[in-house]
């Protein structure tokens, strides 16, 4: 089992999906700095992805500051600097675009959607 | 990049049918190559030629930079091969079978054998003929992985396996991940099985190469596009050639863009369908890409 939540979707690059999942796992504290990170072999086996892709994912995560290699242990999770507000908003962009598209298709006004988002925030705070 | 298999103009005929018809293909070392095509496309024949089990009628194949017709024990110790119709000594028990294989490979890794046997849940004292198809395929895979070959060739390994066994099979295969320069060449007529596994996708049809591309670039250049129009239209003939399988249903136009770029798509749509109201652009799974391509090949073939 992998120590973070991920559901791979077909059609999207695995590495993008992984990076997104790991960022999220760090934000939701599923993973915290110092945790051991699965090896390339485990990643590849658990996700049934090619070893090359698993290697690439690890390299990208290292570059982005989420992983460091510790001799004798392997990879451990590290906290990159807290991403800027802009970067965090950037993560939401695809979701926003999709939301906007669906709202337009259903002929909903921006104000209606903003109301709905506010309601969503309240509900999220309760659960 | 170095090639582990290099096929040049391979031809193989069986009586009246040409199974492989001038195939050219280079399999780079390292990584997983999916060798796809419909049933009867020539996949198995190609693999048998690569392994010197069938003599080609024309062309040349090099494996580990050696002519495939000169492959000997030394090369075969570096190749793991499992096929759909694997011949196995069915009178042997699982344990006897592994004992028998072990002797042929000086580099056989006993600890690795034990690990895989445990993962695969293989009963050591059962005869191979008494095993289910899935169990037998797992035994075949184990006997081809335990000596840690540089090249693993799998011919339709998943056909007839239930999903659980298939999953175990893939996990077992990926046990070898940490071996350096390890290459896998895996044929299948069912795309979904190899979607995430493949670094490179090769498609053949009627014994000829149709596509040979890194999965990543394939995924980035294909998109499924849907346009909404204000009224029903009739298709103009001159659309960009990279738009495949263009279809119209009522006020909707659907097609596969095989040269997608976010910068140019909008202009291309404006040019062909200036009246388009809305467009949706969706990434495609390997299965969807394969179907889009297969339809295009069929159209091209029937118009010849």
- How many strands of chain A? 3
Beta-strand percent range of chain A: 5-15%
Strand order of the largest sheet of chain B: 6-7-8-3-9-10
Strands of chain B, count: 14
Element-by-element helix/strand order of chain B: EEEHEEHEHHHEHEEEHEEEHEH
As a whole number of angstroms, the C-alpha radius of gyration of chain A is 18 Å
Low-confidence runs of chain B? none
Give a nutshell description of this structure.
The complex is a heterodimer of chains A (127) and B (304). Chain A is mainly α.
Which characteristics define this entry?
heterodimer, A: 127 residues, 3 strands, B: 304 residues, alpha/beta, six-stranded mixed β-sheet, 14 strands, 30% helix
Describe this structure in words.
The complex is a heterodimer of chains A (127) and B (304). Chain A is mainly α and 127 residues long. Chain A contains five helices and three strands. In chain A, strands 1-3-2 form a three-stranded antiparallel beta sheet. In chain A, helix 1 crosses helix 3 and helix 2 crosses helix 3. Chain B contains nine helices and 14 strands. In chain B, a hairpin with a 2-residue loop joins strand 12 (243-249) and strand 13 (252-257). The mean pLDDT of chain B is 90. The chains are: A mainly alpha (127), B alpha/beta (304). The interface between A and B is medium-sized, with 21 and 28 residues.
